Amino acid sequence: MFRIDNQSRTPVFEQIVKQAEEYVRTGILNPGDKLPSIREMTSLIGVNPNTIQKAYNELDRRGVTISVAGKGCFISKNISEVMKSAAIGKLPEFERLVKELIDSGIAEKELTDIIKKVSSK
Amino acid sequence: MFRIDNQSRTPVFEQIVKQAEEYVRTGILNPGDKLPSIREMTSLIGVNPNTIQKAYNELDRRGVTISVAGKGCFISKNISEVMKSAAIGKLPEFERLVKELIDSGIAEKELTDIIKKVSSK
DNA sequence: TAACTGTACTATGTGTGTTAGTACAGTTAT
DNA sequence: ATAACTGTACTAACACACATAGTACAGTTA
Fold it and tell me: Is the distance between the Cβ of A49 and the closest atom of strand D smaller than 7 Å?
């Protein structure tokens, strides 16, 4: 379920965070689901427990998960609202990227076509 | 012309690269234009010459500029093709971002509206 | 009680970014 | 030729983030 790319320049803890969020968006992880325990995850993907802990702390901080000592790390009950507002926060980044692409000579239609393609899936 | 944000987590050399590219896209910098010399830039924005050199090397590597010992660092003659193909290389990133936003509950129209807004400027 | 869970430390090694300083080589104007 | 500029190429040192290693503590569950 979780895969780490050691060649990537993206920090391992960040790869874990991004994958967890992606699994949430795609419905692989749902509200209340339990993530593998820190020690389980350690043996699953072969990274240090501290690195896993850092990832879980970050997920907690973002409201994606809620960790409870003794129980585990669980996907938030209101995860869809959390992801939605996170997405809204990324719209300025989206606009910046669009501006960059348009200014570089990419046609408007090329971008809207990509949106159509993604939406229709 | 060049501004460095020391609070940003983005490396200084990368900030310089990004700003140079943005000035190119917006027509502030044009083919054949000369960038400030490394030593000039040092006093302009108060960072180490080595950091400027690193930024200029990266711009050269990307084909944005051509540095000539004794003369300076100049915007490439075929800069528009360079920027265009760089933009094409970023389309997968664009698609990933679109997918993430759509999956998070952002409406297709919200994204196309942003594209329209940016394009019409 | 035993076995699990997350949490909180300290210490260490590694890589990257930045600064500092020096030296060398090519270009331009005088 | 000389002076003053240009980019280039190093070595050294420091700071910071990431990751690993190890230990200990506290809450939960069977």
Answer: yes
Domain ranges (residues) in chain A: 12-82, 90-119
The span from the CA of B58 to the CA of B56, in Å, is 5
Q: Tell me: domain B12-82, CATH 1.10.10.10, correct? A: yes
Tell whether the model's pLDDT for residue A121 goes beyond 90. Answer: no
By DSSP bridging, strand B72-75 and strand B65-68 are antiparallel
**pTM (whole model) above 0.90:** yes
Concatenating the DSSP letter of every residue in B11-56 gives -HHHHHHHHHHHHHHTTSS-TTPBPPPHHHHHHHH---HHHHHHHH
Rounded CA separation B79/B62 (Å): 10
Residues 44-83, chain B, touching A (beta carbon < 8 A): 80, 83
Helix, strand, coil content of chain A in percent (nearest 5):
60, 5, 35
For residue B9, what are the CA distances in angstroms to A3, B12, B13? 26, 9, 11
- Does any strand D atom come closer than 7 Å to the Cβ of A54? yes
Where on the phi/psi map is residue A95: left (φ > 0), alpha (ψ -120 to 50), or beta?
A: alpha
pLDDT digits (tens, 9 = 90+) for A75-100: 999 999 999 999 999 999 999 999 99
SS3 A3: coil
Q: Any CB–CB contact under 8 A between A96 and chain B?
A: no
Residue A2 has pLDDT above 90, yes or no: yes
Distance from CA of B70 to the nearest CA of A (A): 31
